[in-house]
């Protein structure tokens, strides 16, 4: 009874050095291989463990003496006791259809193991999670146009020896994006005493959250040899909104108060007005004076609201400003060939969500602030990623079934080894040219 009581009140986990000390103490208390009466109880009190543990250590000590080996009282090897590890046939997982491998529960059922066992293998790295995004469908003609576009971005002076991409300093990328006032589901980190219903967020319909479309305009940043910024490349971000006077009184505002309302249907006329009245003015005011004589190409996608490259009103406005600005279209179904869709929009949106706006005016201010807070180095990194994607496009023969390459740009920048122009293997260029001849 006393032994059972000690077993429940003392810590039974002993380190190797403690077991060794107990064995050596018992040897001193023994004579001719027998312990002195009361030694077990005395050892249990001295080393703060149970009498059954002392007896077990003494049996191990006697066994070492009888075998003539060195006293070694380390615990048993891991794996010789306890529950055996459940084995999973990983080759069997390859035979399971992908639609059965979309979540842990479905895969565990297909493999006939518990979800906890499968989760341990995922944590160990034996099985990895992978997200798969839908990509735009490309026709054969789309693929050829994409390859031709990538080849046109190569520096002509380097094509025959070591092909490199041009610095694209005279290219401006524009694109539109909806920015939501709030996400459907938001994650917060709370203390145990805080209520889960805080903060309280509500709207009339989760499918119609207030949103505003913005047109972003960026170019490649300029910097000197010491990395000092000369031109940030951030030309501007412009919301599609209108100011309307309130038609009646309410608890929120008086009649006649100007309200900001989003334009939910952006047409060609609205896009043209934005390009002429905002984008062109911003380019002229922010473009480096030393490069005012070089042609400036504005790259846009093939969305229906975008104007034609020969639009008369736009070209007339360009001539009045004195700059040589030209519109051109990027390849169809090729969002990955625009720096805004490639990564800059996501970077802006991640900052915008941290502002937690409540009104349209606050949303506009949050987006514009996030755009201005973005470091020009990040924009330059996206332009380099664009060049790396062009290499992958040519490797894939115009396709988009590739993973966006990671170049460790931050580390290269810290070391001073970040290049402005990426090189492309001449064999890839030759294969791309051969593809266009077919």
Characteristic key phrases:
single chain; 438 residues; 5-stranded mixed β-sheet; 15 helices
Q: Your description of this structure?
A:
- The protein is an alpha+beta fold.
- Helices cover 41% and strands 12% of the residues.
- A hairpin with a 2-residue loop joins strand 1 (30-31) and strand 2 (34-35).
- The longest helix has 20 residues, at 376-395.
Q: Can you tell me the CATH topology of the largest domain?
A: Nucleotidyltransferase, domain 5
Distance between the termini: 91 Å
Strand element count: 11
In the predicted model, the low-confidence regions spanning at least 5 consecutive residues are 1-12
Q: H/E order of the elements?
A: HHEEHHHHHHEEEEEEEHEHEHHHHH
What is the structural class?
alpha+beta
Q: How would the blueprint of this fold be written?
A:
Layout: H1 2-9, H2 16-29, E1 30-31, E2 34-35, H3 39-47, H4 51-67, H5 90-95, H6 104-111, H7 115-124, H8 140-152, E3 171-180, E4 211-219, E5 222-223, E6 229-231, E7 234-239, E8 241-245, E9 258-262, H9 268-286, E10 296-300, H10 312-321, E11 325-329, H11 339-352, H12 360-373, H13 376-395, H14 409-415, H15 426-437
Helix pairs in contact: 2-3, 2-4, 3-4, 6-7, 8-13, 8-15, 9-10, 11-12, 11-13
